[in-house]
Structures are given as C-alpha cells and as structure tokens.
Design brief:
Blueprint (H helix, E strand, L loop, with lengths): L3 E3 L3 E3 L25 E4 L5 E4 L5 E3 L3 H7 L6 E4 L1 H5 L3 E4 L8 E4 L6 E4 L3 E4 L3 H8 L7 E4 L1 H4 L3 E2 L13 E4 L6 E3 L4 E3 L3 H6 L7 E4 L20 H4 L14 E5 L8 E3 L5 E10 L5 E3 L1 E6 L8 E8 L2 E7 L6 E5 L7 E3 L4 E10 L4
Parallel strand pairs: 3-6, 5-7, 8-11, 10-12, 13-16
Antiparallel strand pairs: 1-18, 2-21, 3-4, 4-5, 9-10, 13-14, 14-15, 17-19, 19-26, 20-25, 21-24, 22-23, 22-26
Length: about 350
Amino acid sequence: MSKFRRFFTSALMVMVVLGMSAFANVEDTSANAQAGDLIKMDGLSSVYYLGEDGKRYVFPNQATYFSWYEDFSGVVTISATELQSYPLGDNVTMRPGTNLVKITTDPKVYTVEPGGHLRWIQSEEDAEDLFGVDWADKVVDVADSFFTNYTIVDALESGEYPAGSLLKNVDGSSIYYWTGDEYREFDSEAAFVANGFSFDDVMETVGHDWTPMGDPITGHKTTFNIDYYVDPSDDEDEDEGTGLSVALSGDTPESQTIPYNLQGVVYTSINFTASNDGDVDLTGLTVERTGLGYHDSFDRVYVEVDGVRHGNKRTLGSTNETTINFATDSQKITVPAGETVQVDVVADMNPED
C-alpha cells in the first residue's frame, strides 16, 4: 500500500475575509489609502474595501470578490497603524447583475439587488428566460453563516428584471443599467468598462424598446461602487464592538502529499483581526474536512497559536467535521483590539492501514 495519502484541505466554517498567497505579489506603496480603495496590510493577505464612511469592508469569499474585480492589481498596501485606524464595517455582498446565490441548506435560488437584497426566482423556466439555458452556472452557494448578510425581499415576478441588471436588445448595440426605476444608458464602451462591469453579465433580450431614463452613464460614478451595494451598519449601539474579521492566511500550505503517521501537520492558517473598539475572545472553532479521501486518515485535529495548543484534540468522525471548544480561560484565544492573531489548524495522521 502506498506510504502516502493525498493532502486534504480543511475548511473553517467561520472563514470570512478573502485571502490568498497571490496578494504577496501586490506592489507596496507608501501612499495613504483613499475611500474606494482596496487595501491590505503589509505582511498580511487579507484584502478589504475602504468605504466612504472610513470603514473597511470584508469580502467573504473569492466569488464575491471577483464579482466586483477581475484581479488584484488595484490593491494598496498600507501600514498596520493605518489599517487599524479603519474600523470594520459589514461584509460585502455579491455584486448585482453578476451571480445568482443560494444558501447551502435550501434549494431556492435568488437574484441579488443593490443593498444585498435577494429576490427568489420562482421557477426554472423564469431563470432560463432571464439568464439563458446555462443559468445554473451562475449560481453560487453562500454559507449559512454569511447568508445573514443579505435581506430577502419580494419574489421576482415572471418576466421581471432584477435591479442591477445590464440589458441590451439582441439586435441592438446600446447597453442599459436597470436601477429598478430607470434604464440608464451607457454612452460608450469606455464608460461601461470604467464602472467595472463585464460584458459577460449583459442580458440579451428580444423585442424590447427601452426609453433611456435618468442621466446617461458617461464615466465612473460613485453610485456604482461597493458603497452603493453594501448595507452599512446603522450603528444603533455605538458602545458595542464592531466585531471580528477572519481571513485565510498567506501561510496556509499549498496542496501536497504527506506520509502516514506524521504528527503536527498544519493544514490551514487563519488570521483573526479584532476591531479597534474591543478585544474579542474565541471560545471555539468548527473544522470541516473537504476533498477526496477518508476521515480516518486523521488521528486527531486541533488548533495552535504560535505553537501552543488551545482546546482538546478532536477526531473528525464520519461526518468529517468537529468542533473544538476552548472551555477555560487558559484555553480561549484572545484577539486584542485592532490586532491580528494567526490560528493554525493542525492534524496528527494515523498509521498506515
């Protein structure tokens, strides 16, 4: 029998901020960030959107990030002090007019409108009429923990276009942005591109004769950036902390093969960053194994901070999932206000069968 088993990635159900090793290639800059910038801290992989309100907004996954941006060329690297000066805002929701979304535990498929509003597509026929025969390819699963970032509103009626749609007649050249009240025409391809839209997201229709309403779109409009689509916190209780962001660390190993019986294998590293207005205590993490292979390849899984274990070692079991609790004050992981703590998910492998 082979002495090696394929490396299996572990996924944390609490993972939020988008992070990847490619961010290490982003050019460093000494310039201060401005509203509308994508920002990251030197030495960390987490990328945020800096809003007009001075808060940094979180991308919960890659699909959400790439619904807004095609690459990372615009990311601005700033100092730790500057990053910590921007309090955490909300999570960014999927860009309207791009992907459809569904919750992982419910088959209903929704369109996304500005502000993270969801409208249920009531039948496959309606979905095909709007988005074509390949409509299912546009569906992105949203984890239960992130679905609360969205608000479900009225279902979409048959033949109704969701706000945020990009529309054109199949026999015409003009492209329109549907606000829900007005058809705003792009006056040039340059204006379309300047607003970060993709021609792949344009919905072609037959026989519509739209009358342009509102101002034509002639260049980059602030109403089309993320601020327009994120529902910011209304700050009802300003004394409460704004919480915690979670990012995949650039220290997470790439896929590899590992031998049986190897101890202390780091599978995933996560950066936890607390908001500036208070410490955050982690009292437990849920770890799920994904990918090919068998749960019994792992003897125990556990978490460490700087090589120190927190909580007990746990077996995965047939569900491929376990929760590691930090039951005592000595076990819990405290993330100080405005700081980042890297948590490693570690496993001991079983001997060869």
